Structures are given as structure tokens and as C-alpha cells.
Amino acid sequence: MHARTPGKWLLAFVHGGEAAAAAAVWTRCGWAVRQAVALHMDVLDGFMEVVTGVLTGLVFKLGKLLVGEYNLQKGVKGEIMFLQPELQRMQDALKKISRSRSDQLDRQDRIWASEVRELSYDIEDSIDTFMVRCEGGQLAAPDGMRGFIDRSLDLLTRFRVRRQVAMDIRGIKRRVIEVRERREVYKIDGAGARPDAVDPRLLAHYTKVTELVGIDDARDELIKVLTDGSEASKQHGRVISIVGCGGLGKTTLANVVYLKIRAQFDCWAFVSVSQTPDMRRLFRGILSELGKDINEETLDVKHFIDAIRKFLQAKRYCIVIDDIWDISVWNMIKCALPDNMGGHVIITTTRNFKVAEEIGGAYSMKALCHESSRELFYRRIFGNEEKYKRPDEHLTEVSDRILKKCAGVPLAIITIASLLANKARDKMEWLEVYNSIGTGLEDSTDVENMRKILAYSYYDLKYHLQICLLYLSMFPEDTPITKNHLIWMWIAEGFVQCEQQGKSLFELGECYFNELINTSMIQPVYDRHEAMIEQCRVHDMVLEVIRSLSSEENFVTILNNEHSTSPWKMFRRLSVQNSMVHHDSTFPSMSMLQVRSVITFSSAFDLMPALASFRVLRVLNLKGSYLPQGCDLKHLGNLFHLRYLGLDRTYSNELPDEIGNLRYLQTLDIKGSNIGSLPSTVVQLRHLMCLCVDQNTRAPNGIGSLTTLEELSTLYLCDESTDITEELCHLTELRELELFFWNNTLEKSLVACLCKLRKIQSLVIWASGGEYNFDAWVAPRHVRRLQLQSCWFSRLPDWMTPSLLCLSSLWINVRELHQEDLEILGRLPALHHLYLMLDHEKLKIPQRFVVGACLFPCLVDCRLLGFMGAVFFHQGAMMRLKHLAFTLYARDVREIASSDGSCFDLGLGNLLSLKDVMVYFRSGGAGEMEVEEAKAALAHVLEIHPNHLDYDIWG
Predict the structure, then answer these.
(1) d(Cα 462, Cα 196) in Å, to the nearest integer?
(2) Is the separation of the CB atoms in 700 and 723 below 8 Å?
């Protein structure tokens, strides 16, 4: 109390007659206030079930002001209690509006909705600013007179802040009353309640909704054109340009052909162009796809062209250039692709017939026939059910009418089918959809009709999903969007607010992501093992729709080399897509005071000084934008509202100590930078939930204080990391953990620590410097990914059972394995990727194994290494397996062939989905002739496989 009394005296001295008000700073919310708030908690609790979008969390934050230790001035609490139910009514009205297309609303409704959205932004900014200024920056003051002065000035500042919030709240109340008076009744006629979404999680993980239908003939036709003919004719190279309207499947066809023929060439690449391409980024992408990375950011377009030409000069190459809009872009790309007489294939896609003709080899994309359309339609609705072949008779007629409107356009078919998959199998409901999607595509190729179909699907989404989908308009065309980063940005923006049924904010956001996939509004991009969804894409037709909608609602402003897409004077979110960004030219006439998100897709970025004006910025993602040498990042420390900071691949050298000022930061991503160590102030970020760094970035001591962390990669553990290993035990909220481990002495402590992290869903360990015993570790039951390189189990652990329902990707090293162990692995219901390393070669255990029918039902990618005995595959095993690698000894080939007097056979012909095989061949002491005969027998088995396998035999 002695330290506080002088502060009260100073406030009274400075403010004179306001001493009584100043004294209120020291009081807490009394019993009467808490009782009054309790009367309104039914409003608050009901609201939290639906709180999303523009008004997300406002009622909750107002409640925090009432019950928290903010010591509001007299009268302000009453104003807040007035605002809570008013905002609730506005939220309900906005939700109704969100269910109706803008062309179905009268002008008054649209104007009112716009006013409410802008008002809600201003309310949230005001409240957040107050909370940040009250809660942040409270450092321990020294003793003595200096400490007295510091504490007194702090009290004075806080009192002024409270006076300001009182003025703001009263101003907000006046604006709310004005909005209410302009529209006396908050009621919009129209859409009723929506049905629940289909399975919010499993569908996105274990099914693919874009199975190819009706594409085989076009694929075979193009492959024949590209590969037939004499060797002399092939030397000149061949070009095909696939042309057709949006949604016909041009990119899908190009990709199928590309994947089928690329192994015939020395190198290959698949790149997308988009409507307003950054040519430097495009050429860098071609080089990267070809396997040649250039880190020099200062290269101009000519240097990139020269580098590509030099790399391709003596090679046979296959390149796909997707989505060309303008012939001038093709002419520039063509300069980089030499006609080297070595034989090459170039495939392009475009919507423009004139562009296709000028490129040459125009191939007009055809719509699906009625039978293929029906198959795609039913398969998306009914999944793998037999019903999709014979649907109920009462649905057949309306289905055919819907398909006639879709006119064989796959995107339209999938979009409408995804919508109907969430509805009852009821003819009247399906007719309602049919009557709501406009005139259809059957009479016109006009993409406007496609937009109507997509817009209908958008308005059928739940309100929180609409907001999350609109946020994707921040990203350029054909940009792969990392799933985890997107979800963290949603959380930073406040789109994901309330934890539900034991789910964290991220897990709830993941449900949103999967629902958008299930409705086909976004397209999943799987990892290379097809085990987990790592990214998503937005079809360019869908992107056009959500860009238009976000522009109408002042949701996103896009800045590119041509113009800004927004007519609004005030900007809320900026997507900077200029090729070069400088603070003195990019924002000459724009007010940045209310910008909440900035995402850049620029080659270079020099806006650090201008960031000081972004006072309520929550998301700053500079991923891939080169920051000029000497760029000072200390300005970041002034962005007190910041929740998401992405510096991935910005080539920054150092993170400033001021980063510790960002008390509300939730995500920090500096992967791909040159930052050698994190500043010690990072441990002050007590709201941090995601930390992504490079494996060579050192973490400071005290990282165990970041107890809210859910995602951590890549944590480096070495000889000096004893304290950090012990602190890792405190991070019990971790769901995803990636470690780089290099210290034998830490083995036991690390294993003991990992046993305490029971929420782990993904564990990746990269270990060097030896082999590590993990027998004592037990995996959590919800684990999805285990990748334990150099971590060994003496036998298959007891916890490895089919009860691990979510385990999709497994890299495990086992000293000794038995047949029953392999069968246990084969019954894991969700396993898509398996890397199984045994120690049988070292231990001299020549045991053979059999993969029986029905085992590994979901497996797509399988690596069976370190085996001394052959593995046999029975009919019905591994029905979805595409990629296989295994170890084989020469003696096995001889013994298997001679055992029954027939040809060598492992049962590879029973693997009906197999595409490619890698065999690690071991001589095992056999003579040279025996080895050659064994290899020839193996090659014969691989060559006669009905799927015409791509294969390699190593050793």
C-alpha cells in the first residue's frame, strides 16, 4: 500500500477536482456490478454459441471489461450493459443477412449491414486498444524516488486511458443508438436454418472428393499426340494448349498427362501463371520445380530466363504452364524454353481460344457426357455407397434437371453435389436447390452462370464459414495455402473464438477448414505420401466469387501492379501483390489506422517504417518477401495488437529484443530465415501458441514458460540444451512437435519428457550422432503422425494397436519384427504412409513375411527396409497402394523361383493400384552371375505388371 498511496496523491494533485474519480482506479468491481453482470450472462452464454465474423467476441470482451480489473469510471459499466444486448441483436440480424444474396436484399438492408460491420470494427479496435494499454508493458519499477516517479507516471497514464475508454464507450453508444433508430426493426426475411455439416473431421482426412471421372479418353488422346511418332519428329519438341472455360478441368487433365509421361524426360516442372503474374516469381518457380534453387533476390527477369535456358539446353524436358491469360506472358515464358533438338514437351492451359491458337496445338476441352456427369454427381453425394449407382427413383428426375443446368462442367457438378450431400435425401429440398441456382450453363458458356452456382453454395455456408472463406481472397490465384498457417491467421483475426467440447481454438479452426473442403469450396493438397492434408487451393472461379463478395463488404483490399480493388476509403485487410513494395509509393493516399491484416506476395518489401501507422494490426505475414539488407525490424515491437507474425523466407538476420513487447502474439514463424538465435525476450510472449523456427535456430532458456504453445518446430537439442529439454516437460498443450536431436546424454531425459506430453498429435524427430532407444516412450492415443528417424524400438511397442484410429503417417524403426506384428500394423485403420525399418540385416534374421488380404486398407506409400527375407503380397492386400519400396536379397529370388518350379513372383500383381516401385537389391554374398539373373527375374516381374510400373533397382 505504501507504493500506491503516493500515486493516488499525484493523481489528485494533477487533476484537482477529479481526485474522487482518480481514487476509483484502486477499486475493483463490487458485488452489485457482478450481480448485474450475472443477469446478463444468459445473453453472453447464448451469444458464445454463434459468435463469429465481424462481431466476433465483442459481447465477450465487453463482459471482460465489466468483471475484469480494469477499474472503469463511474457510469461506464451501465453503458456497457446497454451495449451487450444491442450488439447481440445486431449479430442476429447480420447472420440472417448473410444467408441472402446481396441482389436479394433491398438497398436499405445493404446500407444498414455495412454500417453495422464498420461500427463493429471500430468497437473492437477501441476495446482492444484499451485492454492492450492497460495489460501490457507492466514492468517492475525500481525502488526509491525513481521507482516512485515511474509508478506514479504509470498510474497517471492508466487513468488517462480509462478516461479515454469512457469517452469511447459513450461515443459508441451514441452510434449504436443512431444505427438502431435508422432501422427500428432488426429483421430480415429469407433463409431458414441450415442443416448440420457432414462429418467435420474424418471426410477431409480420409476421402477425396475429386476422383477423376470421364477423363481417360482425353488423357489417352493427349498422351498419344505427345509421345507417338518417329524419334526424328520427337526431337523438335511438341506443344499442346488445352483450352476451355473455367471449371471444365483443364488443370486436372494437364496434371494427369504430366504425371503419366514425365518419367520419360530428364527434368520436369509444373507452374501456374495467374491473371497478373509476377514474372520473377514465376521464373523462380520454374527453376525450383526443375530442381535448381537460386537464392539471389536481386536477379532481374533476363537473368532468370538465361538461367533456365542454360539449365535446359542439353536436356529433354517436360513443362506445364497452367492458366495463361495473355499471349504476351507466353511470349516471355517461351524465351526461357529452348528448342534444343533434344526432344521436349510443353503443355499449357488457358481460357482464351486466341491465346491457345497462338501458342499452338490447341486442344478444346470437352464437357462431361451425361453418364459421366451423373457418376461424378452421385459419387460426391453418396461416397462409396453402392447407392450412387442406383439412386432412389424419386431423386433421379430432379438430379437430371440439376445436371442439365451444370452442362457437364465438373466444378459446377462437384459444387452442387457437395451442397446436396449436406441435405436430406428429399426431392423437395433438391428441387429448392435446383430452383435457386439461376438459369444454368446449358444454354451459354458465360461464366456468370457459373458464378451464380458458386454464390449459392457460398450463401448456404454457415456464417462463420463464410467469413473464413472470404479471408482466402487475400491470396493470389493458384497459390498453395498452408493449412496450419491459414488456421492460425483465422484465430489471430478472431474468426475462431470459443473452444467447444474439449477442442482447442486450433482444433475448432481445423474443423472449419475440413468443412470448407467437404463443401468443395476449397481443394485439398496432400503431402507427398497422401497421408495428411498440408495445404489447400482455391479454384480461380471460386476465388473470383469470394473476391467480389469481400470487395462489396470492405473485407479485403488487393493492391497489385495495376490498381487497388476496393472503392472504400478505409481499409481493413490488405493483400499486397505488387512486384516491389516501398513505403513512399505503395500507400500514398491511404489511411492505415484501421488495417487488421497485411499479407504480402511481393518480391521485395520495404515498409518497416510505415508499419508504425498500422495501429490495430493483428496479422502481418511477409512470407517470401525479401527484406532489404539493413532493414530494421525493431518497429515490429510497436504493433501491440499483433497476433500473427510471419517472417518465413524473408532472409532476416536477427529478431529484435522488442519482439517481447508483443504480449498478445499467438504465432511467430521465422522458418527459412537466417536468424541464428531467438532473443531472450521471446519468453515474455505468454499467449504464444505456435512457434516455427529453423533447426539451426537456438532457443533461449526459459522456453518452458510458454505454456500455451501448441505447435513447436524445429527445436534444436544439443550438448548445451539440458535446461531446454527439462523445460519442454512444461509445454503440456503441445499438439505438434518437431525436434532436431544431437546428444546421446539427453536420451533418457528426452524420452521421459515426451511421455508427459499427452496431447501430441504429430511428433517428428530428426536425430543424428547415433541411435536412440525409445522403448520407454508411449504414444498418445490421438496421434496422427509419428516420424522417429534414428529412434529405435527393440520390438513393436505394445501401444501400437488398431485402436490408434487417427494414425495416418508412421516412420518407425524396430530391431526385430514378427509376422503377427506386421498384421497389427496392417490393421491400423487410417494408415496412409508407412516407413518401416528393421534391424534384421544386422541381426541376421532371414524371416519372410506375408501381407494378407484386407491388410493396410488405406496405405498409399509403403517403405519396407532392412528386411532379410522377402515380403509376399496376397490378393486383396494394400488395395490403395501406389508407391512401394523394399529390400530384396538375390538368394530370395533363386529360392522362391525354385521352390515351386515356376517363375519368381512376390505377388506384386495383386497390388492393383501400384504405380512405382523402388527395390534396394542386396547380393548377400551371391556370385556376379547369380546377381544378374536375379535382377533380370525381378525386372521381368516389374515389367509385366498390368499398371506399366515406373521402377528402379538399386544395388
Answers:
(1) 9
(2) no
Interval 102-129: pLDDT, tens: 666 677 777 777 777 778 888 888 778 7
The CATH label, of 3.50.50.60, 3.20.20.70, 3.40.50.720, 3.40.50.300, for the domain at 216-364 is 3.40.50.300
Nearest alpha-carbon partner for 392 in 439, 425, 360, 362: 425
Residues 6+ apart with CB under 8 A from 479: 537, 601
**Digit-coded pLDDT (tens) for 35-63:** 332 323 332 232 222 223 445 567 667 76
Domain ranges in the chain are 5-182, 202-209+368-552, 216-364, 554-700, 703-768, 794-955
d(CA 646, CA 87): 33
CATH class given for the domain over 554-700? alpha beta
Confidence of residue 148 (pLDDT cuts 50, 70, 90): low
- Predicted pLDDT of residue 122: 81
On whether the CB atoms of residues 811 and 786 are closer than 8 A, the answer is yes
Question: Can you tell me which residue has the cell 477501441?
Answer: 126
The per-residue pLDDT for range 566-605, each reduced to its tens digit, is: 555 678 899 988 766 555 555 545 567 789 999 988 766 6
Q: Average the pLDDT over each of 8-22, 69-83, 729-743, 784-798 and give the range with the smallest value.
A: 8-22
**Which distant-in-sequence residues (6+ apart) come within 8 Å of 815 by Cβ?**
792, 793, 794, 795, 838, 839, 843
H helix intervals, 383-446: 393-406, 410-421, 427-436
| Dihedral, CA of residue 440, residue 444, residue 450 and residue 452, to nearest 10 | -50
Q: Where are the alpha helices (DSSP H) in 183-270?
A: 202-206, 216-227, 231-234, 250-261
Q: 787 near 765, Cβ under 8 Å?
A: yes
CB 894 within 8 A of CB 872: no
User: In the prediction, which pLDDT does 385 show?
Assistant: 56
SS3 for 779-841, per residue?
A: CCCCCCEEEEEEEEECCCCCCCCCCCCCCCEEEEEECCCCHHHHHHHHCCCCCCEEEEEECHH
- Rounded CA-CA distance 840/869 in Å is 9
Q: Three-state SS across 608-627?
A: CHHHHHCCCCCEEECCCCEC
Distance, in Å, from the CA atom of 657 to the CA atom of 683, rounded to the nearest integer, reads 11
Report which of 928, 280, 214, 860 is spatially closest to residue 579, judged by C-alpha positions: 280
The 10s digit of each residue's pLDDT in 548-572 is 888 888 889 888 765 555 555 678 8
Question: Which secondary structure element, helix H or strand E, spans residue 333, and what is its range?
Answer: helix 327-335
Distance CA 75, CA 94 (A): 29
**Half-sphere exposure at residue 414, Cβ-oriented, CA atoms within 13 angstroms:** 23
Q: How many residues does the chain have?
A: 955
> Could you give the CA distance from residue 847 to residue 870 in angstroms, rounded to a whole number?
8
* Prior bond of 714 cis (ω within 30°): yes
pLDDT, tens digit (0-9, with 9 covering 90-100), for 514-523:
999 887 789 8
**Paired residues of 267 in beta bridges:** 317
The pLDDT value recorded for residue 45 is 30
Exposed/middle/buried for residue 491 (C-beta within 10 Å: 0-12, 13-18, 19+): buried
The pTM of the full predicted model, rounded to 2 decimals, is: 0.77
User: Which value, to the nearest 10 degrees, does the dihedral of the CA atoms of residues 162, 165, 167, 168 take?
Assistant: 170
C-alpha pair distances (Å), 831 with each of 28, 564, 825, 827, 862:
55, 46, 9, 9, 10
Q: Where are the beta strands (DSSP E) in 601-728?
A: 604-606, 619-621, 644-646, 667-669, 690-692, 711-717
Residues in contact with 263: Cβ distance below 8 Å, sequence separation at least 6, in sequence order: 950
pLDDT at 21 over 70: no
Q: Cα–Cα distance between 406 and 367 in angstroms, integer?
A: 10
Q: What are the residues facing 698 on neighbouring strands?
A: 677
Three-state secondary-structure class, residue 577: coil
